[in-house]
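Worked Example 4.2. Consider the chain below.
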Amino acid sequence: MLTGIILVLAGLGAGALNAIAGGGTFLTFPALVWAGVPPIMANATATFAALPGYVGSAWAYRTDIDRGGKPPLAHLVGTAIVGGLAGAGLLLVTPEELFSGVVPWLLLMATLAFATGPSFVRCLAKSGHETSSPAALALVFVVSVYGGYFNGGLGIMLLAAFGVIGMTDLHRMNGLKNLMSVVLSVVSVTTYAVAGLIDWGNLLIVGLSCAMGGYIGAVLARRVRNTAVLRLFIIAIGLIMAVAFFMRPAG
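Applying the procedure from the previous section yields the following structure tokens:
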């Protein structure tokens, strides 16, 4: 009963956080590990649980996504598919013990990216910096590999990548971030499911809770004008979880 309650609360919180500011994986992934799900399977299940929220967000930004610009949308999506497959494949061949050792570093990196990403994107947007299409796609590919391997902090890393390659329209950037998250999640989840890495029982609990939390978060997002305090809360969660995983006994 306690495990079920923790997973429901984590799912509700994650869905709401993703709808308002992102960072929901910082709740669902540790909650699944706490519930006894092996880290690799917890990562796969948390990625699947976040997928419905990504779809809803991408649909909300549908008019902003394909406004032209470089690289073309088809090239970005194609790169995400290839990178996501590469990242998911890399996860499949990663030993459980090695992944457990890498997790705290991934959480720490995602938290730092979440903390510094918005300022970084704004600075790049003001500079009007532009990157050649091949270099831009190479950067998107690297971030896509990360997204296929580990879902935590993916959104802000995509935004940072779009800023680096010269995008300045934040609405289009957010729309592309959501669309790319959908593509990466579908590719990753399909790979994980074929490999038997989805905990279907816990997915049902967390996924439904995420969907409910996403609806609640969307309602709250209309009333929240300043998300600075919420972002600080998410950063604190990320740091606490990273420290907790660093202190977690091996195996």
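The mean pLDDT is 82. Residues 2-247 form one domain. Compare this with Example 4.1 before moving on.
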